[in-house]
Amino acid sequence: MDDLEFTGEVVEWRGPAPFHFLVTPPEESEWLREVMRDVTYGWGMIPVTGRIGQTEFSTSLWPRKGVAFWVPVKDSVRRSEGIELGDVVTVSLAVRG
To answer: pLDDT band at 18, cuts 50/70/90?
Structure first.
């Protein structure tokens, strides 16, 4: 059972290597901040199982500036679903805890 679902644009963060993310909208971010206290394993990271299209994956949400969470979109997920930077996709997330 999914805890939340939202649609967003795939964005990039450039660190030592580029990473691709979806950013949680305000309402979903507020709910996640509430849940975070019970499920985080440190640094505010929230473990989730996600699904984009037909591809299921495990990851952890990254807290960002205390306002939103970033959902990492792994290379394997992007390849399997044909996702490029700037695409708008829908993700379903189930919090693991």
So the answer is: low
**Tens-place pLDDT, residues 36-90:** 989 988 888 999 999 999 999 999 999 988 889 999 999 999 999 999 999 999 9
Instruction: Decide: 60 and 48 in contact? Cβ < 8 Å.
Output: yes
Residue 66 · residue 58 · CB < 8 Å: no
Sign, Cα dihedral of 70, 71, 72, 78: negative
Task: Provide the domain limits for residue 65.
Answer: 4-95
Residues 20, 65: contact at Cβ < 8 Å? no
CB 12 within 8 A of CB 18: yes
Count of domains observed in the chain = 1
Q: Which CATH number goes with the domain that contains 31?
A: 2.40.30.100
Reading phi first (left if > 0) and then psi (alpha if -120 to 50, else beta), residue 78 is in: alpha
